[in-house]
Design a protein that fits this description.
The chain has six helices and no strands. The protein has 177 residues and is mostly helical. The chain has one domain.
Length: 177
């Protein structure tokens, strides 16, 4: 499978799990911190000025928010395999690191730079914790799913011959000297 396609599918899968995690963690936030989460705020800020949000009812706004959120997750996932190949290491660990990098580049970088949202440093700690945890989930799922879809570790080889890319999905086992 093409690595970018595998990454996009993995990013989409990661976004599904991430969204479920965000919803669960949102309910645990202090009442004062339970204002709309970033995907909705970003959709309102980016799409709102076009007038489209006014033309939609609430379920349609929610669907649009989810579609854009899943699209962003898939797009970020499509870039993951190229980064992971350069970094190496276990897929779950590389994926988590990538998820945190996506969070930083988004919520401390381009989103505030484009004046869509204020930087994460201006949001309550509980909300930042939620979003960081959600990106850990997204990255871990994306990394492991991408490795699976790209066939990392599927080749049959002799025990003496290491699998190409095996370090991407399994811990290293060393034989005693």
């Amino acid at each position: 499978m093409n690595h970018s396609v595998a990454g996009a599918i993995a990013g989409l899968a990661g976004t599904v799990v991430m969204t479920a995690a965000m919803r669960a963690m949102f309910r645990a936030l202090p009442e004062k911190d339970r204002y709309p989460l970033p995907p909705r705020l970003i959709t309102d800020r980016v799409v709102g000025p076009t007038g489209l949000m006014d033309a939609l009812d609430e379920p349609e706004r929610r669907d649009l928010t989810l579609a854009l959120h899943y699209g962003y997750g898939a797009a970020a996932g499509a870039l993951y395999p190229a980064i992971a190949r350069r970094i190496g290491g276990p897929a779950a660990v590389t994926g988590v690191g990538y998820g945190l990098a996506v969070w930083g580049a988004s919520y401390l970088g381009w989103i505030p730079a484009m004046r869509i949202l204020t930087p994460a440093t201006r949001h309550p700690p509980a909300r930042n914790s939620l979003m960081l945890a959600a990106h850990v989930v997204w990255g871990g799922v994306t990394g492991v799913t991408a490795a699976y879809l790209m066939g990392v570790g599927k080749e049959r080889r002799s025990a003496a011959e290491p699998m190409e890319g095996a370090r991407d999905c399994a811990p290293t086992v060393r034989e005693p000297a």
